[in-house]
Design a protein that fits this description.
The complex is a heterotetramer, with 2 copies of chain A and 2 copies of chain B. By secondary structure, chain A is mostly helical. In chain A, 69% of the residues lie in helices and 2% in strands. The chains are: A mainly alpha, B alpha/beta. The structure holds adenosine-5'-diphosphate (ADP) (2 copies) and magnesium ion (4 copies).
C-alpha cells in the first residue's frame, strides 16, 4: 500500500482539526511550564497552512508539505513555528515531486524531518521537548518496517512510540525551551510540544492506517 | 478575563493601529507583515537596529523605535516571538547600507526565528550582526540548556547602542557595544500576580493572596520559586543580592539602577521598592549614577517588578544621556 | 492585599524617600511637613505653581514638579488631601515674589485644606490665586452639591500653565490660563477592578468578573453606574460621547486626546482603547492635534482608564509643546 | 454640675479610644460611598491630638480644645481634617480661659462648633453629612436645658438626637462631600462623618454624664 496525494491532504485536514480540538489542552500544558500559547499558536498556523495547502496544484505531495512548512514558519512564531515549519519543510524535501508515499518514502521523510528539527533546536532525547516523541516514533517505524510489518501497522507502532515518548516527558527536568527556566519545577508536567508531536503521528496512523 | 479589548484575536493588530494613530510623527506602522519602523528610516549611513519579540511587553519594543534607539521593531502575537518574514521585511525597510544589528532576547523561539531571518537577509547580501541578550540571573546557565533569558538589560542595550548608532559608529562597534552592555547587565524579576494571555482567557498560573513568584521572566510564566509574600525590603534584598553577587558588582562600582514594573504595579510601589534598592546598594558601597523607574518591559497586567543593574563606564553614561525621541523614552530633544 | 510595600503606615514616606533618592537632580523632598519642591526653587521672578492632593495618583503631582510644570507638590496620605501646613510650607519655599497659583482639584477636602492654606499665606502678605479643576462629566453639576470632581484635565493644566509661568507671565495671566484650560477640558473614567487603600487592607469595592464601573473618580470610589463589562469599542464610545457632548466639542475642533491608565492597566490596552477613541473622534469630525497616552493620574493599582479631551487653541498647543523636565513628563530638554 | 478640666481631658481620651475601636467600621462606611479613609484619618488625627493635649498646661479647657483642633487640621487632611479641626477650634474659642464647663458653656460651645463646621463646609441638614448628626444634637441639648433638664440628662438627649440624625442619613442622597459623586447610589448607606459625630456626642454623654 502507499499513501495517495488525497490521503496526504486529508491527513493535513485531520491534523488541523485535531490541533483545533486540543488547542485548549495544549495551551494548558504550556501554561504549566511555558507561556500558555502552544495550542493557540499551532492552531493559528495549521488553519492558515490548510487553507494554503488546498490551493496547491494536485499531484506533488512534496509541494503540499513545503507549503504547510512555509506557512507555519510565517504564521506560528515562537519555538513551535520554526520547529514544526522545519519538520514539514523536511517532509517536503524528502517527498519532492512524488505523487504518492510508499513505506520507505515515509521512513526517509520522517528521519529527515526529525534530523531537521534537531539541527534547528539542538535538542536530544531527554531534554523534555517534541524530540522525545518524534525520535522514538522514527525509530519504531524503522524497526517495524525492517521486521517486515505492514505500513499500516508500522504507522500504528510509530504512533504508540510517540505516545510513550510523550508520557516519558512528564518526570523530566527540561533542558531546552522555555520550560528549562523552571529548573526542577518543570518535572511532573507533560511537555506540550511532545504532545502535539504525538497528535501528529497519531493522526498519520489514523488517516493512513485505514488507507 | 477583564481587559480593555475587543476580540482577543485582534488585540495586537488594534494595538498597532493605536500606535499608528498616536505616533505617526515618530514611526510608520506596517501591517503585512507586522513591523514598526522609524518614520525617517532608512537613516543615511547609519547602522540599523532591529529588535522584536512577542507582544505584551509594551512599551518594549515598539515604544523604543525612534531617534537614538531602534530603527524597527517586530511585534509577534502576545508572548510569541515574531516570524522570520517580519524581521526580514523590517530589516529591508530600515537597511541604510551600513549593516544591521538584530537585538535578540535569548528565548528559543526568538533565537530560531531571528536566525532564519538573518539567513534570509544574508542570502541577499545584507550584513547582519545578531546579538543575544541573556541577563536573567534567576536562570542558571549551562552548556546543555537554553541558557539565560533576556529581560531588563534589553531596554538599556537598545538605548545605549541606539545612541552609538546615531553617532555613526560602524556595525562591528555597535554590535560590540550591545554585547558589552549585556555582559555588564544583570536582572531578576518577581510577580505578585499572574497575567492573562488574551487568547487563553484565564490566568497563566494561580497564586494565593499570601504567595509570590520569584525569578519570573516576562511571559507570565511561573518563576524559579514560589514563596510566602514578603515585605518590599525583603523582596528587594533577595533580588538585589542575587543580581549583585552574580556579575559581581563590587564596592566602588557606578551603576544604572533600573526598577521596572511588570505592568500592573503602580509607580507608588516602584518608588517604595526603589528606596529599598538605593539603601541596599549604598550598603554594598555601590553608587547609583543613573536610574530608570517605571514599567518599560512588562508582562501584560502582571503585578510585580524586576531589578536590573548595569555596571557603568564613562562611555555608557555618555550614550545613556544622549538624546532619545521615542514614545517610550524621551529626553534631550 | 498584595503590594510591594513594607508597613502600610509608611507607604507615603517611603515613596517620598524613593523619589528623593531617584530625582535629586530635579526636586528637593521635604519630610516635615511633606512637600516636593523644584530643586532650583524659588525661580527668580517666576509665578510659582503649587498643587497637591492625596497620594496614590502617581506620577501626579510629585512627578510633575520641575522645569516647565509645578514648583511644588504636597502629597497627602493615600487618597487624603494634604493639610494646610503642607501647602503653606511649600508655598513659602517656592514663592519668588511673583505670586502663587494653587491648583486645587474640586474635592471638599482639597478645597477646604487649600482654602485654609491660602488664608495663612495671604495673612502673611503673599499673593495667592486659587484655581479649581472640575472637569469630570460623570458628575452632574449643581448649585446645591459639591460640584464636579477634578480629574484628567489637572495634568494638562499643570503642563500648560507651567509653561506659561516659565515664560514669565504674570500671576493673573497664569491663573487665567489654568481656568481657561479647565473650561475647555472634559473627562470621564471607568474601572475594571477596585483598588486597595494600603491602610484599609482590602478592596474599596467588590466587583464581579463580568462587571465594570462607569463614571469613577481617582480615589478608588465606585462610579456613577455599574454595568456589564463591554468591549473597548463600546466603553470608549460611551465615555467619549459623554465627554464630547458635554463641552460640547464640535466638528472641526482640534483637541488634545489624553488616554489615561488608572494604574493597573497596561499600555497594550491603552493603545487598543486609543485606537477606538481616534476612530470615534474622526467620526465626529474632531481632529486630534496632540495626544498623551499612559498612566499619569491613577488610583493605585486600579485597572481601568479615563479619557480627557481638551479643546486646543494655538496658544495651548505652543505651551503644551514647550520644554518640560519632570520625572513624569519630559520633552524638549 | 459642671465639667472639670480633668473630665475634658478624659473625654478626649475616651473619644480617641472610641475612634480607634471603630476605625474599621468608619472606614467601611466610607468605602461604600467615599474613599475608604475616614476611620483611618480620624484615628491618626486623634492619636496625635491626644498626645499633644496631654502636654498642655492644666487649667485652661479652651487651650485643650484648641490644641486638639490645631492638631486635627495638621494631621488628618481630607474633608474630615478641616471639619473636625474647626469643630474643636470653635469649642476652644467658646471655652477659652475656662477651668471648667457649665451646662450653658457647653450649649454655647456646641452651637459655635456646629456653626463653624457649617461655615467651612456649607452643608445643611439633609445633605448627608456630619451636620445631620451635629445639628439635631445641638438643638436637643438646647431644648433640654430650656426645659430645665439636668446637664447629665441633656447630654444624653443630645447624644440620642445625634444617633437619630446619623440613622437619618441612610436613605438620603448625598449633596455634599465625596458621596455626592455617587448620586442616587449614595442612598441606602449611613454617612461615615455623621457616624463619627454621633460617637463624639455619645462619648461626651458617657464620660461627662457620670461626672
Ligand atoms: N530547542 C528545542 N528543540 C526542540 N523542541 C523545542 C525546543 N525548544 C522548545 N521546544 C518545543 O517547543 C514547545 C513550546 O512551543 P511553543 O509554546 O509554541 O513556543 P514558545 O515556547 O516559544 O512559546 C515545547 O513544549 C518544546 O516541546
Ligand atoms: N461640605 C461638608 N460639610 C460637612 N461635612 C462634610 C462635608 N463634606 C464631607 N463631609 C463629611 O466628611 C465625611 C468624609 O470624611 P473623610 O472621609 O475624612 O474625608 P474625605 O471625603 O476627603 O475622604 C463625610 O462622611 C461627611 O460626613
Ligand atoms: Mg509557549
Ligand atoms: Mg510563546
Ligand atoms: Mg479621603
Ligand atoms: Mg474619605
Amino acid at each position: 500500500m502507499s499513501v495517495s496525494y488525497e490521503e496526504v491532504v486529508s491527513w493535513i485536514k485531520t491534523f488541523t482539526g485535531t490541533i483545533a480540538d486540543n488547542k485548549a489542552w495544549l495551551t494548558d500544558l504550556d501554561s504549566a511550564i511555558g507561556d500558555a500559547d502552544h495550542g493557540i499558536n499551532l492552531d493559528r498556523g495549521m488553519q492558515a497552512a490548510l487553507a494554503k495547502a488546498e490551493t496547491v496544484a494536485p499531484g506533488d505531495v512534496g509541494a503540499v508539505f513545503k507549503t504547510v512548512g512555509m506557512t507555519l514558519v510565517s504564521t506560528v512564531g515562537g519555538a513551535g513555528g520554526p520547529l514544526y515549519g522545519t519538520l514539514f519543510l523536511q517532509l517536503g524535501v524528502a517527498t519532492a515531486g512524488k505523487s504518492e508515499i510508499a513505506a520507505e518514502d515515509w521512513r526517509a521523510a520522517l528521519a529527515g524531518a526529525v534530523q531537521g528539527v534537531q539541527a534547528r533546536g539542538k535538542a536530544e532525547v531527554g531534554d523534555k521537548t517534541m524530540i522525545d516523541a518524534l525520535a522514538p516514533a522514527r525509530d519504531a517505524l524503522a524497526q517495524a518496517l525492517d521486521a517486515g510489518v505492514s505500513f499500516e501497522d508500522a504507522l500504528r507502532r510509530s504512533a504508540e512510540a510517540a505516545e510513550e515518548g510523550m508520557r516519558s516527558t512528564i518526570p523530566l527536568v527540561a533542558r531546552k525551551g522555555r520550560a528549562s527556566y523552571l529548573g526542577e519545577r518543570s518535572a511532573g508536567h507533560q511537555d506540550p510540544g511532545a504532545t502535539s508531536s504525538y497528535l501528529l503521528l497519531k493522526t498519520v496512523a489514523d488517516v493512513w492506517g485505514d488507507g | 478575563m477583564k481587559k480593555l479589548i475587543n476580540d482577543s484575536a485582534d488585540v495586537v493588530r488594534e494595538e498597532l493601529e493605536g500606535i499608528a494613530a498616536a505616533h505617526a510623527d515618530l514611526v510608520d506602522v506596517h501591517f503585512d507583515p507586522y513591523y514598526i519602523a522609524r518614520a525617517d528610516a532608512p537613516v543615511k549611513g547609519k547602522v540599523a537596529l532591529v529588535s522584536g519579540g512577542g507582544s505584551g511587553h509594551e512599551p518594549m519594543h515598539g515604544g523604543f523605535v525612534g531617534m537614538g534607539m531602534l530603527d524597527a521593531a517586530c511585534p509577534g502575537e502576545v508572548f510569541t516571538s515574531p516570524t522570520p518574514d517580519q524581521m526580514e521585511a523590517a530589516s529591508k525597510a530600515v537597511d541604510a547600507g551600513a549593516g544591521l544589528v538584530h537585538i535578540v532576547k535569548n528565548y528559543t523561539g526568538d533565537v530560531m526565528n531571528f536566525e532564519m531571518a538573518a539567513e534570509l537577509c544574508r542570502s541577499e547580501g545584507t550584513e547582519v550582526e545578531s546579538v543575544l541578550v541573556d541577563d536573567d540571573v534567576a536562570v542558571q546557565d549551562s552548556l546543555y540548556t537554553a541558557g539565560r533569558r533576556g529581560v531588563g538589560t534589553t531596554v538599556l542595550i537598545e538605548k545605549i547602542a541606539g545612541a552609538a548608532a546615531e553617532e555613526g559608529r560602524p556595525l562591528k562597534e555597535v554590535a560590540d557595544i550591545c554585547r558589552e552592555v549585556n555582559a555588564n547587565g544583570r536582572s531578576m524579576g518577581m510577580a505578585l500576580t499572574s497575567c492573562t494571555v488574551p487568547a487563553a482567557g484565564k490566568p497563566t498560573f494561580d497564586i494565593a493572596d499570601d504567595e509570590m513568584e520569584i525569578g519570573i521572566g516576562i511571559h507570565g510564566e511561573p518563576g524559579r520559586e514560589r514563596m510566602p509574600l514578603k515585605t518590599a525590603h525583603d523582596i528587594v534584598e533577595m533580588m538585589a543580592s542575587a543580581v549583585v553577587d552574580d556579575l559581581p558588582f563590587s564596592k566602588g562600582d557606578k551603576v544604572l539602577a533600573f526598577m521596572n514594573g511588570m505592568g500592573g504595579t503602580p509607580l507608588i510601589e516602584l518608588y517604595v521598592a526603589y528606596h529599598e534598592l538605593s539603601k541596599f546598594l549604598k550598603g554594598r558601597g555601590i553608587e547609583i549614577a543613573r536610574n530608570l523607574i517605571g514599567s518599560y518591559i512588562t508582562s501584560l497586567e502582571m503585578a510585580g517588578c524586576s531589578i536590573t543593574l548595569l555596571k557603568l563606564n564613562d562611555e555608557f553614561v555618555r550614550l545613556w544621556d544622549a538624546p532619545v525621541k521615542t514614545a517610550g523614552l524621551r529626553w534631550g530633544v
